[in-house]
Each structure stands twice: as structure tokens, then as C-alpha cells.
Amino acid sequence: MKQIIIPENERSTEPLDTEMVIYHPDMKRANEWILTEYQPPVRDFCIFVPCSKKKPYHESPSHKIFDRLIFGILEPEMVHIVVFGTCGITPRELDEQYPFMDYQFMMGKCNVSKIKRDFIRMESERLARYLERTKSNYKHRIAYCIGDFRTAMEKAVETTSVPVTIVPKRETIEKNIQPSKGFIYGSLNQRDYLQDLAEAISKPLGRSVIEVNEKEQMINDNDWYVL
């Protein structure tokens, strides 16, 4: 029987669709459960990917694109997918659990400086704890992220010294900056960024890097991607 992180009769009545979602008691409680009670699997790879607008994450258009690339290179038993961002930290096999399935607010839409600062601080601390707790679980760690999510991951890596390959590469991001967009870095679903992810996965295996399909559909599905 699947364990329920927060039983229905113990859930807060506070809304999960406002910019205060990062402070929501159930989001905090669920993340604390993951960081203390959840038992992460042992895998060759851990790949961190950002949360998406559509829930559950594994059914979202963006995650389906990520999965086609990841599982085109790796066998499922080789990799653990971990989602992070507005949700905190969510091993993707738990993405149908409350509150990860139920919140609606997207950090990418938040322009409140204090909340953005708090998010980076809180998320970097959670990521650091997860990296420390799982440092013997994975041989390789890759984080696919841009924007504030990337900043949080970089801070976590700096804090722990646990190695994580963060992609896209900085030079790839700079090449794809779109000044006219609300989010200048564009979408992680674009070809150049996906190519960097493919390289990061293939390199530890000593394999040739696959060529990412240039006609991959651009999808505005990621939390931090705002037109």
C-alpha cells in the first residue's frame, strides 16, 4: 500500500495557489518528510529537473520531452528523476502525492523580491540536505535548470561540495538569451539546451552524444518559463 505523506485529515486549509506557497505548512512538512524519512534508491544517475505547470509532472509536455532524451540514453533502472523548484524537492515517483499534485502557483510568475530571495535560500538549503543525504546513492548527478532554480542548485553544490553537473552550459545560455521575452533565458525544451543535457548524460558513459531532434516542439510548460 502506498504511503500517504500527509493524510487528508491532517492537511492545512491554507490555499496552495498564491505566492505564499513556499511558506505553506504542508509544503514544508512534505519536504521535511522527504529529507528525513524517504528512502532514496541507489542508481548510477540522479537527474534533477524543474517542476512543471501540468501535474503530475511525469505527464507534463516538458517532462515527456526530458524523458524521451534521458531514457533514449539510459535504462530506467540506471536513473532516479528528482523534481525541484516551487515544490521544493520531489522524487518524481511521488509526484501524484499531495501537496505536489495540488499547488498551482508558479515561482516564475513571482516578482516579489523578498519571496524570490526566500525561495533561493530555502531551496538551496533543501537541495544541500538532499545532496548530503544521498551522496552515496548516486554515481553521477546532473541538474537541468536555469534562472532562480539554477541559482539555488549552485548554492547547494557550493555548500556541500557534492559534485553536480549543472546544464545547460553558461555559454549555451548566453547564446540563447532572448531580451524581448519575459524570461530571457527561454525554455529548457529548446534544442541547444537539450543537447547539453544529452552530452552531460553521455559523457560519464563514454558514449557518443546523440543528436537532439532540431524539430522538437517548443512548449511553455516549465514553472520558470514566462513569455
TrEMBL record:
GO biological process: tRNA processing
Signal peptide region: none
Ranges in coiled-coil conformation: none
InterPro entries tied to this protein: DUF5591 (IPR040777), Uracil-DNA_glycosylase-like_sf (IPR036895)
Keyword tRNA processing (UniProt): yes
Gene3D superfamilies membership: Uracil-DNA glycosylase-like
Ranges for domain DUF5591: 31-170
Keywords: tRNA processing
Highest taxon of source: Archaea
Protein name: DUF5591 domain-containing protein
Organism this protein belongs to: Methanomethylovorans hollandica (strain DSM 15978 / NBRC 107637 / DMS1)
